[in-house]
Specification:
alpha+beta; SOUL heme-binding protein; 9-stranded antiparallel beta sheet; Multidrug-efflux Transporter 1 Regulator Bmrr, Chain A; 28% helix
Length: 208
């Protein structure tokens, strides 16, 4: 007979939480991730240097979470819907960059290094294109939760306050009307079924 059911269930909950966390970290570690060099760390804030990256991208809305078919367009590309009929490994993170319209972003999968070296095959599907993400220095804030437009905006605001405290200047005019003018990206590292508190999300602002 259980003498203290509260302690028992609390113990079970702790072990379940540890198991879920370990599973999530292991699952994330199974993917090649975009490389970067950490220049400075301040809690959840970092300054990073990224090399040039090749992405396959399509337009979506951040709140759609890929449910509008955008994720599947990119997934079909890496599953063989390209001119070489080549299967390409999934990587992390999925980058999302502000588009001309406030509600739209460019969702992009990072191409693995070996594919980039050999040459990224052209897509055969519609509304998918290959583009270069130019390298450079970025201010970054890491945060958890289910990524949506509101959470992204709140995190961007926090990052800009931190940048100001450090004397860091964004590379782009926030008000400019071009697809890449904002210089602001979000990055998601986890599968859709990952619990919000365990998710790794980031907002990145390109620096001068």
């Amino acid at each position: 007979m259980l003498r203290n059911p509260v302690v028992y269930f609390a113990t079970i909950a702790v072990f379940v939480a540890i198991g879920v966390f370990a599973w999530n970290v292991t699952a994330r570690a199974g993917y090649e991730s975009a490389e970067y060099e950490v220049i400075e760390t301040d809690g959840n804030y970092e300054i990073r240097e990224y090399p040039d990256l090749m992405l396959v991208a399509t337009t979506t809305q951040i709140d759609a979470q890929g449910r509008d078919g955008s994720f599947m367009k990119l997934f079909r590309y890496i599953s063989g819907a390209n001119e070489s009929e080549q299967k390409i490994s999934m990587t992390t993170p999925v980058f999302m960059e502000n588009d001309k319209a406030d509600s739209q972003v460019q969702m992009g999968f990072v191409m693995p290094k070996d594919v980039t070296v050999r040459g990224v095959p052209s897509p055969t599907g519609s509304d998918v294109d290959v583009r270069k993400r130019s390298g450079g220095r970025f201010a970054v804030l890491r945060f958890s939760g289910r990524l949506n437009a509101q959470l992204a905006k709140e995190s961007e605001a926090k990052l800009r306050v931190w940048m100001e405290s450090k004397g860091l200047v964004a590379a782009h005019d926030k008000s400019a009307d071009t697809a890449s003018a904002s210089g602001v990206e979000t990055a998601a590292y986890d599968p859709p079924f990952t619990p919000g508190p365990l998710r790794r999300n980031e907002v990145l602002i390109r620096l001068k």
